Amino acid sequence: MSEEHKSLNQIIDYRKEKLSKLKEAGIDPYPQKFTPNQFSREIINNFENFQDKDVIIAGRIMSIRKMGKASFFHLQDQFGKIQAFIKRDNIGDENYNNFKLLDIGDFVGIEGYVFKTKVGEISIHVKVLTILCKSIRPLPIVKEKEGEEFDAFIDKENRYRNRHLDLIVNPNNKEIFIKRSKIIKGLRYFLDKMDFLEVETPVLQPIYGGANARPFTTHHNALDQKLYLRIADELYLKRLIIGGFDRVYEIAKDFRNEGMDRNHNPEFTMLEFYWAYADYEDNMNLVEDMFRDVAKTIGKTKIKLGEITIDLSRPFKRRPILDLLNEATGEDLTDFSEKKLRDICNSNHVDIDTNFNYGQMLDALMSELVEPALIEPTFVIDYPIAISPLAKKHRNGNLNLVERFELFIGGSEFANAFTELNDPVDQRERFQSQAKLGDDGDEEAHPIDESFLEAIECGMPPTAGVGIGVDRLVMLLTENVTIKEVILFPSMRSEE
Q1: Cα dist from 25 to 11, 29, 107, 409, whole Å
Q2: pLDDT tens for residues 139-171?
Q3: Of 76-85, 236-245, 346-355, 368-377, which range is least confident?
Q4: What is the mean pLDDT of residues 126-143?
Q5: What CA–CA distance (Å, rounded) separates 490 from 486?
Q6: Short-list 377, 378, 376, 349, CA closest to 364
Q7: CA spacing 20 to 30 A to 372: which of 94, 220, 298, 414?
Q8: Largest pairwise CA distance in the chain
Q9: How far is it, in rounded angstroms, from Cα 333 to Cα 80?
Q10: Please, what sign has the CA dihedral across residues 380, 383, 387, 391?
Q11: What's 484's DSSP letter?
Q12: Are 241 and 281 in contact (CB under 8 A)?
């Protein structure tokens, strides 16, 4: 009876029997080491150089056709698959009988010469086979017929929960994470060559800060102290600017105890960098150059999102937030009336709670009416002070505005940046305003951080800071529409 007609427990028991037989035959099915000298892709791409030459290769058996005195199987390594041909007459009866105890999912190492079969498939004629790992649990193997795949492991929930199976059965998905690695290396290279210093700051913090978000909480037993997983790196990085480092950055995991959707995961990767003696205009230029430069590292300056093509090589737009809101609502929002803002939300059918404050209503209007239309790369600039507690007031003299930008591409936010507030008196007043919002029920309001206030009272030079969502950047450059596709192990609801 074939495996597909057996229960999982029957399959596992049957494979354990094979494992015992291998051990009885004096075979160690879990040896310590094996040293291949080639990968499948190199052999296939350079067949002329390898034809009739011996190679040593290792990988997982992904298909197997056992016949009487000869068999074919496909071996999958990190870079692809290659067929192997094994014959009783070449390896001997005992070795061939041991081979027949192998299954799909087992790891083997083979030594043999490269040739083409009668149907033209590049293959390895096995002279020596070494068992490297006997698998016990079967794989959800993708079946193939005439080049077409069926019964594929495509259920997203299963793929995300069992990423190891996803990468085995859908090896093309490895490309997403290879590109992710290149993108992160590209970010580092870009900043390193501009003399930014990579640093590390605490993940566990006594006071969370640097963003408006709900934190995860934990308890340190030895200190008997409540701690928070960081929601941003900002306030610690600014301490380093205060301490005399002029250019610092961190690529780090942040955590926010909030909702999950195609753009949000509770644990996510952020790049934050701070640049002394610069402003938000400098950072707009830097971020635009950075996105373009990093896209080139994976050969992708034109992005396909559905029917839309986004060209990152073209200049990014720059639009004041109030201009965009005025255009979207047909109303003039420059007087900052909270009552008027509530009326505008209601008339535009933007869903808001009765206790929403000004900043929350403005965010709701932006999310519903403006952001989905920001397809081409657009810096939205000059935000109201009420929703920007860490940004410096605008140099144009409008006391209601700050020097801030957010970058939107394809309707999603990718970066948030300020000319940083370095007036300690102003900073304290804004923290106090945020604390009042927290007292009024805003769970995402910024708490007062006395330690940071003491640091900034020592003096911080003019500084520009940026936060960039690395996961979203990877989504963009790999043309994926959900964040779970670009995080190896995304957060998932318990199956129980």
Answers
A1: 21, 11, 18, 61
A2: 986 655 555 555 557 788 889 999 999 999 999
A3: 346-355
A4: 90
A5: 9
A6: 349
A7: 298
A8: 89
A9: 57
A10: positive
A11: G
A12: no
- Of the candidates 20, 55, 225, 202, the residue with the CA atom closest to the CA atom of residue 127: 55
Q: 3-139 in CATH: which number?
A: 2.40.50.140
**CA dist list (Å): 218 to 160, 215, 259, 442, 493:** 26, 10, 19, 21, 20
From-to residues of CATH 3.30.930.10 in the chain = 175-316+376-485
Contact 80, 171 (CB under 8 A): yes
Total residue length of the chain: 496
On whether the CB atoms of residues 270 and 254 are closer than 8 A, the answer is: yes
Please say whether the beta carbons of 447 and 436 come within 8 A.
no
Task: Starting at the earlier edge strand, list the strands of the sheet with 204-205.
Answer: 204-205, 225-229, 217-220
How far from 9 is each of 6, 29, 63, 412, CA to CA, in Å?
8, 21, 21, 46
Residues 6+ apart with CB under 8 A from 43: 50, 55, 57, 82, 114, 122, 124
Alpha carbons 154 and 441: distance in angstroms, whole number = 43
The encoded tokens of residue 480 equal 């994926």
**Strands (E) located in 194-349:** 197-198, 204-205, 217-220, 225-229, 247-255, 267-276, 302-305, 308-311, 317-320
Residue 211 pLDDT grade (very low, low, confident, very high; cuts 50, 70, 90): confident
pLDDT of 59-87, one tens digit each? 999 999 988 899 999 999 999 999 999 99
Contact 363, 393 (CB under 8 A): no
Please report the pLDDT score of residue 149 as a whole number. 53
Name the DSSP class of 211: S
Fold (CATH) for 175-316+376-485: BirA Bifunctional Protein; domain 2 (3.30.930)
Report the C-alpha gap between 264 and 371 in whole angstroms: 16
440 contacts: CB under 8 Å, gap ≥ 6: 355, 357
Whether the CB-CB separation of 36 and 56 falls below 8 Å is answered with yes
Q: Which of 160, 155, 154, 153 is nearest to 493 (CA)?
A: 160
